[in-house]
């Protein structure tokens, strides 16, 4: 009795003991999360360090780094996303995608909230901190796009056993992560392609056509006129010439020593018949556009304005047949009435009539605009993710690639799936090599303002997680039947740092790579 009454045998009351036990459990879970994060960071650091070494050795050059980024975006990441949609991690707990979405549909729409809030917060950081123009889009992307694949899987793999053992959750959260990844990669690469200016192939063709149209009009450069970017095709007729002054013309005559453009063989003093033949140095087509009377009418140049067209060129530069064509064209508009230009009002009306007759209809313009948006949105990673989603939604089609529970034979296309999965698994290491290659020269903290870097760090690691935690808290009180594992996945994917594959977008867009590298390194 005496021993039991001693102070060292006195136990704390049960409420205090329960609180101590709960505190120990929370501390244990916090340490588990900390170790999981450190392991994930260590794995990423190892891959990035390999990229630093091979770049320092000279194996990865600037051109090679861009080639790796192109390879990752156009082959490796599409295959990784495609195979991730079809893969079956555990046959015993396999659930068809259609049924899985019914129980965790909130994760299917959550990427809209995560990316949308991230873009708003990133724009806020860019405006408040005075972000440079060459980093403004990257600032938005650094907050909007999180590492929701590699790091999320690592964290859930480490957290799930401990949480299941404690009874906090009753379902493996990894089975719900693919639901979030159905839309997020498509949203990331669609919005990211628009944000970073990664246009589709159709847009590139349109740019090449515009370049060719500009190349076919070297006269504009010779005359020194100013033309708006929209003035191509039919609207290229309305150009404004900046004609040189008489003193400047005399100086140019002394420099070039030869002036081309006599419009009459009889007398140069005749103002009505004087037309200067323009010698374009680029092509015979451009020469014909300038020297012909049709081109003069298209430019709305009247008879009284023709003497002011003063163009200089070297006749020795052109072959004899072109000089003969020049003399023929210069003698053609001999009468003033042939060059009589319509009034200003009639000219503008004719332009409107021609554009209304030859221009596309409103419906066709809308269809072309929609096709352009679709081309820009369907970048390779989005295509791979969409195909994987489509195949996984139909269980018989999925069974062609992977073995499902209850199947007695191997999948007919299992060999194809294994090969595609092996190629796709190289995506994460290659992305980290690209990141390490950019880090090989060290972080340049002068590449972006300190305020912008700290703003991204705060907003990505504290601001957005706090906002998403408040949203998840409210949604969990409304949709009470949703499993806790779903909310755990929602919280994990909202708290991860900036995605490493954003470097691929930056590498292809040619924006401030040093600033993005410093931003990722800081996080």
TrEMBL record:
The chain crosses the membrane at residues 33-55, 67-85, 105-126, 138-159, 179-201, 377-401, 413-436, 467-493. Residues 246-255 have a biased composition (Basic and acidic residues). It is a multi-pass membrane protein. It comes from the Eukaryota. InterPro entries: Mem_transp_PIN-like (IPR004776), PILS1/3/4/5/7 (IPR045033). Keywords: Membrane, Transmembrane, Transmembrane helix, Transport. GO terms for biological process: transmembrane transport. GO terms for cellular component: endomembrane system; membrane. It is found in: Endomembrane system; Membrane. Residues 243-263, 337-358 are annotated as: Disordered. Signal peptide: none annotated. Belongs to the auxin efflux carrier (TC 2.A.69.2) family. Involved in cellular auxin homeostasis by regulating auxin metabolism. Regulates intracellular auxin accumulation at the endoplasmic reticulum and thus auxin availability for nuclear auxin signaling. This is PIN-like protein.
């Amino acid at each position: 009795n005496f021993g039991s009454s001693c102070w060292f045998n006195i136990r704390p009351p049960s409420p205090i003991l329960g609180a101590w036990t709960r505190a120990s459990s929370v501390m244990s879970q916090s340490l588990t999360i900390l170790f999981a994060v450190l392991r994930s960071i260590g794995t990423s650091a190892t891959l990035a360090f390999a990229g630093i070494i091979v770049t320092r050795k000279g194996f990865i050059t600037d051109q090679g780094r861009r080639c790796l980024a192109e390879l990752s975006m156009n082959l490796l990441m599409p295959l990784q996303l495609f195979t991730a949609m079809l893969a079956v991690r555990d046959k015993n707990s396999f659930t068809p995608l259609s049924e899985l979405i019914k129980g965790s549909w909130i994760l299917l729409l959550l990427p809209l909230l995560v990316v949308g809030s991230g873009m708003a917060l990133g724009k806020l950081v860019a405006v408040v901190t005075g972000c440079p123009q060459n980093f403004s889009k990257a600032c938005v992307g650094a907050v909007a796009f999180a590492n929701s694949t590699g790091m999320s899987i690592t964290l859930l793999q480490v957290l799930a056993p401990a949480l299941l053992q404690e009874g906090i959750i009753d379902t493996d959260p990894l089975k719900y992560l693919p639901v979030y990844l159905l839309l997020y990669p498509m949203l990331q690469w669609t919005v990211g392609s628009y944000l970073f200016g990664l246009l589709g192939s159709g847009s590139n063709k349109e740019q090449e056509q515009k370049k060719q149209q500009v190349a076919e009009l070297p006269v504009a450069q010779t005359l020194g006129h100013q033309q708006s970017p929209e003035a191509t095709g039919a609207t290229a007729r309305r150009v404004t010439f900046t004609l040189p002054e008489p003193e400047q013309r005399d100086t140019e005559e002394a420099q070039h020593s030869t002036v081309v453009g006599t419009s009459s063989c009889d007398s140069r003093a005749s103002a009505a018949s004087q037309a200067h033949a323009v010698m374009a140095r680029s092509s015979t087509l451009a020469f014909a556009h300038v020297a012909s009377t049709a081109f003069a009418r298209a430019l709305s140049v009247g008879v009284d304005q023709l003497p002011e067209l003063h163009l200089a060129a070297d006749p020795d530069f052109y072959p004899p047949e072109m000089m003969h064509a020049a003399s023929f064209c210069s003698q053609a508009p001999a009468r003033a009435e042939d060059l009589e230009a319509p009034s200003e009002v009639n000219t503008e009306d004719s332009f409107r009539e021609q554009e209304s007759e030859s221009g596309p209809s409103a419906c066709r313009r809308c269809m072309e605009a929609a096709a352009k948006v679709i081309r820009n949105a369907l970048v390779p990673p989005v295509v791979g993710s969409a195909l994987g989603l489509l195949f996984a939604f139909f269980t018989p089609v999925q069974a062609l690639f992977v073995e499902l529970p209850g199947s007695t034979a191997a999948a007919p296309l299992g060999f194809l799936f294994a090969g595609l999965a092996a190629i796709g698994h190289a995506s994460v290491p290659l992305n980290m090599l690209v990141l390490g290659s950019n880090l090989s020269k060290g972080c340049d903290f002068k590449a972006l303002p300190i305020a912008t870097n700290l703003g991204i760090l705060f907003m990505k690691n504290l601001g957005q997680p706090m906002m998403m935690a408040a949203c998840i808290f409210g949604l969990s009180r409304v949709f009470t039947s949703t499993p806790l594992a779903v909310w755990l996945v929602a919280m994990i994917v909202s708290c991860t740092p900036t995605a490493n594959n954003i470097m691929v977008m930056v590498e292809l867009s040619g924006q401030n790579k040093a600033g993005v590298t410093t931003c990722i390194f800081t996080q």
